Amino acid sequence: MAMAWLQRMMTKGGGNFVSTVTSSPHSRFFSKSSNPYVVKVGILEFLNGIGKGVESHAAKLESEIGDFNNLLVTRTLKLKKLGIPCKHRKLILKYTHKYRLGLWRPRAEPVKA
């Protein structure tokens, strides 16, 4: 059925349709700029990437949690026991979830000349 439709499209002058589908549509989405994301992510870089005042808890989280991998699996009750306010806990948990899924990474600081 699909092959018959394709043959009909080719004979009726729909050849351009097939050629546009097989061309590379993703070439325009790739940029040629350098990587704007932080390569090595630690707790401090992660919290700075979130912003919104969350970075004020960096020292507390580094001393109590340790490394970044432990932060990625930390639950809300642990953050609450550390005295982090609700709004900041929600932001930290939201962005750790996005980071684990690969949907978000903290941006590198722009180079200042």
Automatic annotation (TrEMBL):
Residues spanning the signal sequence: none
InterPro entries documented for this protein: SAM_Ribosomal_mS41
Lineage: superkingdom: Eukaryota
A Pfam family it matches: SAM_Ribosomal_mS41
Domain named Small ribosomal subunit protein mS41 SAM: residues: 43-102
Name by which UniProt lists this protein: Small ribosomal subunit protein mS41 SAM domain-containing protein
Organism: Crotalaria pallida
High-level lineage: Eukaryota, Viridiplantae, Streptophyta, Embryophyta, Tracheophyta
